[in-house]
Amino acid sequence: MNVARIPVYDQRLRDRLRDGERGANVVRERGFRTGRVYWTEPYRSDVEGVARVERLGTVDPVDCSDLVEYVDGSLFDSAESWRNHIRKRHVWMCDTAYVFQLEADDDADGSDLPGVSDFNDIQSF
């Protein structure tokens, strides 16, 4: 069984995950695998750690009112600032976007996950 690797593009979220702090809600134009996953920096194969991913819902990426219920768990102060960020990443060009919550998995260093031998040493949080 292969375990998904998710690239985490936002530096603020990577810092939170490394520090074992509360993660954040994120919007993606495509779905993530949910459950326990490895997370990495973008364009790198080194595993940074293990996260838990939960799908919270779907939103219309053009209409910021859909984001309001997820703002508290996001990295943004308002739905409008979050929508502006989404537009910079071109997610707004799709019809539906997915909201996921990423949290650091404090319970394990990932050594119990399948496929760990394929990656560099996993740093614990």
Features:
125 residues, alpha+beta, Archaeosine Trna-guanine Transglycosylase, Chain: A, domain 4, 5-stranded mixed beta sheet, 2 helices, 15% helix, globular
Describe the structure.
With 125 residues, the chain is α+β, with helices and mostly antiparallel strands. It has one domain (5-104): Archaeosine Trna-guanine Transglycosylase, Chain: A, domain 4. It contains two helices and five strands, in the order βαβββαβ. The relative contact order is 0.28. Residues 116-125 have low confidence and may be disordered.
Which structural class best describes the helix and strand composition? Answer: alpha+beta
- The CATH class, by name, is Mainly Beta
Q: Order of strands across the biggest sheet?
A: 1-3-4-5-2
* Share of β-strand residues: 25-35%
**Number of DSSP strands?**
5
Q: Roughly how much helix do the residues carry, as a percent range?
A: 10-25%
Point out poorly predicted stretches: 116-125
Sheet with most strands: 5 strands, mixed
